[in-house]
Amino acid sequence: MDTGDTAWILVCAALVMLMTPGLALFYGGMVRSKSVLNMMLMSFGAMAVVGVLWVLYGYSMAFGNSVGGAGLLGDPLEYLGLNGLMSPDALSGTAPAMAFVAFQAMFAIIAVALISGAIADRAKFATWMVFTVVWATLVYFPIAHWVFAFSTDDGSYTGGWIANTLGAIDFAGGTAIHINAGAAALALALVLGKRIGFKKEPMRPHNLPLVMLGAALLWFGWFGFNAGSALAANGTAATVFVNTIVATCAAMIGWLVLERIRDGHPTSLGAASGIVAGLVAITPACSSVSPIGAIIIGLIAGVACAAAVGLKYKLGYDDSLDVVGVHLVGGLIGTLLIGLLADPAAPAEASGLFYGGGAGLLGIQAVGALATLVYSFVVTLLIAFVLKLVMGWRVDEEAEVDGIDGDQHAESGYDLHPLRGGSGMLAAATATGTTVPRQAADEPAAAPAPNSEEMA
After folding, report:
1. Number of Cβ atoms within 10 Å of the Cβ of 393
2. Taking CA atoms, which of 34, 150, 220, 301 is between 20 and 30 Å from 103?
């Protein structure tokens, strides 16, 4: 065990954990004020559910020995309840196995939380919570095994087919996280249908400073996401760190330039979205390209994702917060461009088409991306249809129009006009059986208005 590597992995796990509250702020600011609490709670709810599932059987499904050696699924019983992983002899590389468990838990959490942006403003919270259980079990855990579980050289452990049999490069989760979540988001958006008023009334973000804060926290946490995937405090982590910086900067520039040309003005929402697009695109490629390659990936992702978010209006699906346009498109761009821009001088030591490596790597990357996309989309579609039949997905029309926060959580994100009224309020509350804040109940009744003689 190396204490430096252990410290690095634990710090990075904490950084990745911060990304989910950052996502909650990012998504929360993008919806209308009547939906902000529900939107944020969907991210926190995913954290609660997946964190427990990961300990019970999720880690074992993702990183247990492949069942039958086919590379499709880890043995769910091997590390049931993390059995045997607390031993001092249980190591993952040069760090305790439990450090790796913690790090990968954060990946699983945010992969599920990302999907929620596609169904903002209209989904029942209870159905969403059940969905997180089923989707993590049937989709994320198996795909994480495909992509992140590497076989040992001595044959004592067999990992996933994309990482080992296919040999695709995905350093930190372009396929397992972003293409996966983006494909699932598209499936859910199709099953739930459009929001009331989609394409007919403005649905602008209600709090852009909140969006910018969320984007900043995502960027900060993403250094743990990408550089932490080196699983050591070494040169690979340093190169990945730099590539994550410059790709994100370039993507923000690309998005803002396109907005300036297309719309006549750059926006703060565009800057925040460009940040996320660049982070998504560089995630799979951060160990296999040079910093110049990272800039190219970022620029392409910024422009392409900015263009892609408009597809929902042309194609008629309501992906509320552009999970498809940013995460699916950005993940595909980053994964496929490895086949063109992989630099043999980078830590992954792979050669893309532009570096004399031929088209073979591009084909491998395409197969890995397509397999993830198709599996996630089809299985999510089935899960969503079953839940629609059993529980129902949509809140009723009145709740959607008036505000999902009040309907689903009996709360308001902004209590800008608190009720006051003393005995009248108390009487009304008594009649309806509701409670009254103590300060309101204790207020004296307002004095009657003076008559004309008293005024004189």
Report:
1. 20
2. 301
What CATH code would you report for 3-405? 1.10.3430.10
CB of 323 within 8 A of CB of 182?
Answer: yes
99: closest CA among 176, 13, 173? 13
Q: Over the range 337-366, which residues count as b (16 or more CB within 10 Å of their CB) and which as e?
A: bbbbbbbeebbbebbbeebebeeebbebbb
- Radius of gyration over every alpha carbon of the chain, rounded to an integer in angstroms: 24
Q: How far apart are CA 148 and CA 145, in angstroms?
A: 6
**362: Cβ contacts below 8 Å, ≥ 6 apart:** 336, 339, 340, 352, 353
Report percent pLDDT > 70 for the chain.
Answer: 91
Round to whole Å and give the CA distance between 162 and 194: 35
Residues whose CB falls within 8 Å of the CB of residue 72, separated by 6 or more in sequence, listed in order: 66, 142, 145, 146, 160, 161
- Can you tell me the distance from the alpha carbon of 311 to that of 90, in angstroms, rounded to the nearest whole number? 48
Express each pLDDT in 279-317 by its tens digit. Answer: 999 999 999 999 999 999 999 999 999 999 999 999 999
| The residue count for the chain | 456
Long-range CB pairs of 358-362, under 8 A, 24+ apart, other chains included = 361/169, 362/336
Average pLDDT, the chain: 92
Q: What is the pTM of this model?
A: 0.91
Count of H helices and E strands in the chain?
20, 2
Total Cβ atoms within 10 A of residue 22: 22
Q: Which residue in 275, 285, 270, 378 sits closest to 331, CA to CA?
A: 285
The two structure tokens encoding residue 267: 């926006």
Domain boundaries, given as residue ranges, for the chain: 3-405
201 by Cβ neighbours in 10 Å (0-12 / 13-18 / 19+) ranks as exposed
